[in-house]
């Protein structure tokens, strides 16, 4: 059931009506049942897997908590067993064929007989996202940062909450569970802001991302694209994936607001980042902070020595790439980002020491603009690695960019400007007046809001592409 589908519109309307009319004591149970219906609509056979993950985590948490009365050794065994169980489920469904295929490739390279084994496995919807939720919960309980929740229904709702289960945000239990204890019907202001986010998210997904996806697919479907085509493919995918994923987040946050629940912000104008590290403080924020808190810092962070910091960054970003998908292109993307982040750390003191000429001759705005443009180019090349379907295509696209053969193709350029232009126009206008969304305009400018919302609805309804799945729903 896609957020951008008629089925979801009917489903969410029914959930909203039921939760508004039913007693407050029923709210959590209704939302839990709605979440199971939402998840089971895709494939009911994977509901038992979701329930298993929830039950393992819920009961293990009561045995690994410092106040459980168990010895440190027993707590450690329960914690390790719980983590292994969750990772085993994720690893089997997501990485089995990747491992088998990689082993076959090694055997073939060595000239040995390859078995060509392949398991007929369907990747369960949202398993990467809800596994991170369960790992976060047990880790926080084990560390003593969070007390285990008493009610199974509350924890089950945290893991399976339908706005977030497909592609996040990766909500932490310490932020989500307290809201359930005081869950109330959304106030008028919360409902209005939720509806704003839903419309804005639909516009970004249906009008911008899905239409740009047509030309991006055209470019990446070519055996030998020209340099201009490869450039359009990289820039187009950069805009597509941002509007697709941030559009999903807006829809998730908007639906949750209408139900009286606040979700974490996940994007903060990432393409205005001033450096690679700044980008990861603006892009998929709930993932980047998860990687920092549960992988990078436990490895030692950047506290002991520079070599250790670089090693920890390399491990963290490589795992981040692998988390996105079972493919060597995602691993390469993770390694690429590791090199960018390490390179930025190495160059920072050098640029600070030798950047006097730039500080003296260029105004602050010009220096900031240069940083944004350079960072954006590095990010866009990373998206080329991310979007490529094989290492061979990475090589082909990169070679095309470097050789730069072929003329400008207006049939690719004009659609990119057409579908991306309106979005960029609205965003630029909002930045100019110094607000984050149309919703934040003063009440006295309600006529401007009305015009903007009417335009957004018009283009979404009449010029949107067909209902396409969200990119991050694949992960």
Overview of the structural elements:
The chain is mainly alpha-helical. It has two domains: 179 residues, no CATH class; 285 residues, no CATH class. It contains 18 helices and no strands. The mean pLDDT is 88.
Any chance you could write out the topology, listing elements then pairs?
Layout: H1 6-21, H2 27-43, H3 47-64, H4 72-109, H5 127-143, H6 152-160, H7 173-181, H8 188-220, H9 227-258, H10 276-279, H11 285-296, H12 306-324, H13 328-354, H14 356-361, H15 364-387, H16 391-403, H17 410-433, H18 446-463
Helix pairs in contact: 1-2, 2-6, 3-4, 3-5, 3-6, 4-5, 8-9, 8-17, 8-18, 9-15, 9-16, 9-17, 11-12, 12-13, 13-15
What key attributes describe this structure?
single chain, 475 residues, mainly alpha, 2 domains, globular
The count of β-strands is 0
From the alpha carbons, calculate the radius of gyration and give it in angstroms.
Answer: 24 Å
Element order: H for helix, E for strand: HHHHHHHHHHHHHHHHHH
What structural category characterises the helix and strand content?
A: mainly alpha
Concise account of the structure shown:
The protein is mainly α.
